[in-house]
Amino acid sequence: MRHNYSGRKLNRKTSHRIALLKNLSKSLIIHEQIETTLPKAKDLRPFIEKILTIGKKDTLASKRKVYSYLGDKKIVDKVFDVLGKRYQKRDGGYVRILKSGYRYGDSAPKAIIELVERDINAKGFDDKNRIKEKEKNNNNEKIDENMQIPKEVDKSNEKNTTSKKTMKITKDEDSDKTLEKKNS
Predict the structure, then answer these.
(1) How far apart are the C-alpha atoms of 55 and 62, rounded to whole Å?
(2) Is pLDDT of 72 > 60?
(3) 131 or 99: whose pLDDT is higher?
(4) If we measure between CA atoms, which residue out of 22, 36, 118 comes closest to residue 76?
(5) Counting CB atoms within 10 angstroms of each CB, which of 4, 10, 51, 169 has the fewest?
(6) Has residue 178 got a pLDDT over 60?
(7) How far apart are CA 17 and CA 10, in angstroms?
(8) 54 by DSSP, 3-state: which?
(9) Between residues 83 and 158, which one has the greater pLDDT?
(10) What's the pLDDT at 66?
């Protein structure tokens, strides 16, 4: 009998299930809104609410406890600096679950899980910054490449282009000769 066992197994072993909840909670803290299946969202709610409740107390022990759950200093800093201050006056209920239909492939019920009073700009913010940095680095590399072209390479490129042109001309002349033979 399975009396007083809370939570779902989600067809995973214990270590895999805990890793799943940790990864989902990291994504939820970073983006403040994620879409997943309904059973996963329902199991994620108590996990993330415990983390946010610990995050309201700004002590070293609580930071270490949250770090043991999340394992990323950047996310732990966000829990204590941003989310802990945001939910200081709230006694619970930091997460909202909204049903969002069924998944196309297997008709699994989907849900959107989000933080209450969330920052709308947080979703995808890190991705946008990473793309901007990548573009900026690519532009800087292109500028550096353009400024440091050796002259020897330019000469070799000119020789190659002229040889290609002469080859094209000879081919065109040969084709003209073949055309003349066909006409006669």
Answers:
(1) 7
(2) yes
(3) 99
(4) 22
(5) 4
(6) no
(7) 7
(8) helix
(9) 83
(10) 96
By three-state DSSP, how is residue 19 classified?
helix
Whether the pLDDT of residue 43 is over 50: the answer is yes
pLDDT at residue 24 in the model: 96
- Domain 14-117 fold is 50s Ribosomal Protein L17; Chain: A, (3.90.1030)
DSSP code of residue 15: H
CB-neighbour burial class of residue 147 (10 A; exposed 0-12, middle 13-18, buried 19+): exposed
- The letter for the amino acid at 115 is L
Coil, strand or helix at 91: coil
Tell me which DSSP letter residue 90 carries. Answer: -
- Where along the chain do its domains lie? 14-117, 149-183
Say how far apart CA 161 and CA 63 lie, in whole Å: 65
pLDDT confidence of residue 46: 94
For residues 87-112, give the mean pLDDT: 95
Tell me how far apart the alpha carbons of residues 16 and 12 are, in angstroms, rounded to a whole number. 6
Give the other-Cβ count within 10 Å of 64's Cβ: 10
Terminal-to-terminal C-alpha distance of the chain = 100
Nearest to 94 by CA among 41, 58, 45: 45
State the pTM of this model.
0.69
Contact (CB, 8 A) for 67 and 74: no
CA distance 78 to 83: 6
